[in-house]
């Protein structure tokens, strides 16, 4: 069966650790692996806007010896005349992997069912697993071993980022806290999946409505935009509802003295985070943005190895 990355818990704890190890190796020696030399092409499809994901996949595929084919759905048949399954059948005969940023998780699942090449979720309404690989790499670089660390997320607990922190961090054996108002609490099925995974790894998930309790002693403080792509019509309502969950210097003062601040970006300074925090000494957001490159290269190498789709992949 072809391996894909559609959500964070598609990776076992051991697989996640293997990819992070490989990412560190590739970061230290950027052009050491060229599994896409040939060159082979990787399709990178965008239904939504992007800066980091577009740049890091394009550069990463080139680093691996391949050619990135960046497709905007506005100019393709996908999303209009053609289904994800038919698109996948067309593409698999020509590309080594398909990376897709889209709305519905169901579309990614359909794409993955329809193809023998790996499909990577480059952000959906539900999850952002590529971002989490970069975030875990960043946390590991700054804090050492992931297992046992506490990460506190503030804001929209139903967002793709909150769900991905829950699944990916408990997979790494971390303790995850989500601070969100009652009508923005994480989806029950994702909570259940995170709790199941946490029981295997020794991690944990705790939901809070009180931000101060969530911040207390945390090693990593994180937030995300209050207005995710596709939610623009709810902007005013969200600013009102989520205002109490802004990450401020006071939030950071309640966390561990050596806590770091991360944010997937783009950020709305003054809304979900104060400029004094994101531009302050505890913020590692630029390392985090760079790590998208290294983490995704490792992911692609790993998927190609798993699926045996690249004859020249180094063992
Ligand atoms: N963090 C992230 O995915 O950024 P982009 O939307 O710019 O790709
Ligand atoms: N939650 C945000 C993440 C952007 C990278 C969104 O979906 O817009």
TrEMBL record:
Binding sites annotated in the UniProt record for L-ornithine:
160, 224, 228-229
Catalytic activity annotation: carbamoyl phosphate + L-ornithine = L-citrulline + phosphate + H(+)
In terms of Gene3D superfamilies, this protein maps to: Aspartate/ornithine carbamoyltransferase (3.40.50.1370)
Q: Where is the Aspartate/ornithine carbamoyltransferase carbamoyl-P binding domain?
A: 3-141
**Protein localization:** Cytoplasm
User: Which InterPro entries does this chain map to?
Assistant: Asp/Orn_carbamoyltranf_P-bd, Asp/Orn_carbamoylTrfase, Asp/Orn_carbamoylTrfase_sf, Asp_carbamoyltransf_Asp/Orn-bd, Orn/put_carbamltrans, OTCase_ArgI
Q: Which SUPFAM superfamilies match?
A: Aspartate/ornithine carbamoyltransferase
State the pathway, as annotated in the record.
Amino-acid biosynthesis; L-arginine biosynthesis; L-arginine from L-ornithine and carbamoyl phosphate: step 1/3
Annotated binding of carbamoyl phosphate, by residue: 50-53, 77, 101, 128-131, 264-265, 292
Answer yes or no on keyword Transferase: yes
Top class in the EC scheme: transferase
The record's keywords, sorted A to Z, are:
Cytoplasm, Transferase
Q: Which domain of life is it from?
A: Bacteria
Please state every residue range assigned to the domain named Aspartate/ornithine carbamoyltransferase Asp/Orn-binding.
Answer: 147-303
Known EC number(s)?
Answer: 2.1.3.3
Instruction: State the family named in the UniProt similarity comment for this chain.
Output: Belongs to the aspartate/ornithine carbamoyltransferase superfamily. OTCase family.
Q: Which PANTHER family does its entry note?
A: ORNITHINE CARBAMOYLTRANSFERASE, MITOCHONDRIAL, ORNITHINE TRANSCARBAMYLASE, MITOCHONDRIAL
* Protein name (Swiss-Prot/TrEMBL): Ornithine carbamoyltransferase
Organism of origin is Microbacterium kribbense
